[in-house]
Amino acid sequence: MLKKIRKLMKKKNSRGMEQADITMEELKNLEKKGAILLDVRSPQEYKEGHLNGAISLPEYEIKENVETILKNKKEIIIVYCSSGSRSKKAQKELIEMGYETVYNLLLVNK
Predict the structure, then answer these.
(1) Which of 7, 26, 42, 94 could be cross-linked to 99 through a Cys-Cys bond (beta carbons 3.0 to 4.6 Å apart)?
(2) Does some domain include residue 50?
(3) What is the span of the domain harbouring residue 38?
C-alpha cells in the first residue's frame, strides 16, 4: 500500500510546481501514516463542524502561528476548507515556509 501511495504522490507531484490534491479515500490512508489535518476555515466555520481530528488554523493566521503548532516540517500535512481556494493558498504558504509534504484535500459535495 505504501508503494501505491508513493507512486500516486510522484504522479501527482509531476505537474510542475503544483502539489498534490487528495481525496477522502487518500486522506484515510495518510491519516494512518500520522498525517496532520488542518482546517483553514474561520473559527466560526470550524465550530459549526469539522473533520474528526482536525486542528483549526485559519488561512489568514498561517504565517504567524503555524510554526508554534507544527514544529516538524517533515510531517505530512493535509489542509482543507469549504471550497478549496483557502486550502490551496495555505498549501502554497506552508510549502514556501519549508513544510515538505503538504496536500490539499478535495471535498466533494455530492
Answers:
(1) 94
(2) yes
(3) 2-105
pLDDT at 107: 80
**Does 110 reside within a domain?**
no
39-98: pLDDT as tens digits:
999 999 999 999 999 999 999 999 999 999 999 999 999 999 999 999 999 999 999 999
Give the mean pLDDT of 21-27. Answer: 93
Look up the CATH number of the domain holding residue 21: 3.40.250.10
Say whether 99 is catalytic.
no
Domain count, the chain: 1
Pairing of strands 36-39, 76-80: parallel
**CB neighbour list of residue 87: distance below 8 Å, 6 or more residues apart:** 40, 59, 79, 80, 81, 104, 105
Residue 81: inside a domain, yes or no? yes
